[in-house]
Amino acid sequence: MNKTEIKVTETVKKPEKKTLVSGIQPTGRLTLGNYIGALRQFVLLQDELEDTEFFIFIADLHAITTPQDRVELKKNIRSVAALYIACGLDPDRVNLFIQSEVMEHTMLGYIMESTAYVGEMERMTQYKDKKAKQTDGIRTSLLTYPALMAADILLYDAHIVPIGDDQKQHLELTRNLAIRFNNAYGDTFVVPEGFYPKTGARIKSLTEPEKKMSKSDENPKSYIMLLDDLGMIRNKIKSAVTDSDGTIKFDLKKKPGISNLLTIYASLTDLSIKEIEKKYEASNYQTFKADLAEVVVDAIRPIQKRYFDIINDTKLDDILSQGAERARLIASRKMQKVMKKIGLGRIR
Predict the structure, then answer these.
(1) Which residues are catalytic?
(2) pLDDT (tens digit per residue) in 331-347
(3) How far is CA 340 from CA 35, 70, 186, 343, in A?
(4) What does the DSSP assignment read for 296-313?
(5) Could you tell me which residues come within 8 angstroms of residue 99 by beta carbon, excluding any fewer than 6 positions away?
(6) DSSP state letters, 23-36
(7) Which are the contacts of 106, defined by CB distance < 8 A and separation ≥ 6?
């Protein structure tokens, strides 16, 4: 990575209306961590950022960097789309679509591969982690998918990209690729900025609070799925790992378990962590966990109701088609500009 590239001043004139872009892979059902760290943030932002157009997609192309069951993948794509809406995304405010239905993503993805360097791809932490776990049959796309991720963002001239701590490296690469392309071919892409949620950016495992909550964890008690049985959700919260101290105090290093639970509580209510600490300063873990279990259930219950209302409704297909149509319009315009800058095809 060339450090000087990061320092180049971005000169693309930004339009008056800004753009926010984000996607999520349909590799299984969504967790409470996905809701707090991403979906809930989108719902809050769609109301706050009135001058911003939202492009939210189901990243099915990213899912196939590892083997997927065809039937299960199709089911998960639809399920994630329904959950987005069930969590509060407004189809009148947000362009919701499926990544593979907008072919410009793959076109710009290849151009970003042709802009990036192999060393940059190999330095990606997530690639190294997945490579270590999957020693046989590693697909080329597992190495190059950050280029496609950059394309996902740059295709819509995103100004805002909501990210968690584990995605900073990918956003930095995206910014570098945008600047590198702009320096080589002239102002083409807006250089995006990351948006970091103030609370709940990275919800941790309920059994190993040093790790991120993940649906791929082998222990089902470590995560809460948005479609889990409500009784099961209560039990998972009540059995969450804490410590022997007994004091309800936020301390990531000494008390990661209770700190994680405090983060969840604060993320789902209007209370700050300090206010929650004050509320439970004379209480115990059992009482706190029981109350938190009801906070989580109260947040998830209406999501589940809306989800089951929409999952088999043809309205969901209408929403996805409408979102894809708008995305194709913007993406095709950008690709024509990119191809002209590079000298591809017959575009004059």
Answers:
(1) 130, 212, 215
(2) 999 999 999 999 999 86
(3) 40, 37, 11, 5
(4) HHHHHHHHHHHHHHHTT-
(5) 23, 57, 58, 59, 60, 61, 62, 105, 152
(6) EE--SSPPBHHHII
(7) 61, 148, 151
Distance of alpha carbon 245 from its chain centroid, rounded?
Answer: 34
The candidate with the shortest Cα–Cα distance to 248, out of 215, 222, 284, is 284
Q: Are residues 107 and 234 in the same domain?
A: no
Note whether 12 and 112 are same-domain residues.
yes
- Distance (Å, rounded) from C-alpha 206 to C-alpha 261? 8
Q: Please check whether residue 244 lies inside any domain of the structure.
A: yes
208's tokens: 């190993």
Kindly write down the DSSP assignment for every residue of 50-82, as one continuous string: TTEEEEEEE-HHHHTTS---HHHHHHHHHHHHH
Residues of the chain scoring pLDDT < 50:
1, 3-4, 6-9, 14-15
Tally of domains in the chain: 2
Domain housing 252: 220-309
To which H or E segment does residue 162 belong? strand 160-162
What backbone torsions phi and psi does residue 250 show, to the nearest 5 degrees? -80, 120
Question: 188 and 143 in one domain?
Answer: yes
3-state secondary structure of 95: strand
Do 303 and 328 fall into the same domain?
A: no
pLDDT digit string, tens, across residues 59-109 = 999 999 888 999 999 999 999 999 999 999 999 999 999 999 999 999 999
* Cβ pair 292, 265 in contact under 8 A: yes
pTM score of the predicted model = 0.85
pLDDT of residue 166: 72
Question: Using an 8 Å Cβ cutoff, are 147 and 113 in contact?
Answer: yes
Structure tokens given for 75? 């089911």
Number of CB atoms found within 10 A of residue 55's CB: 24
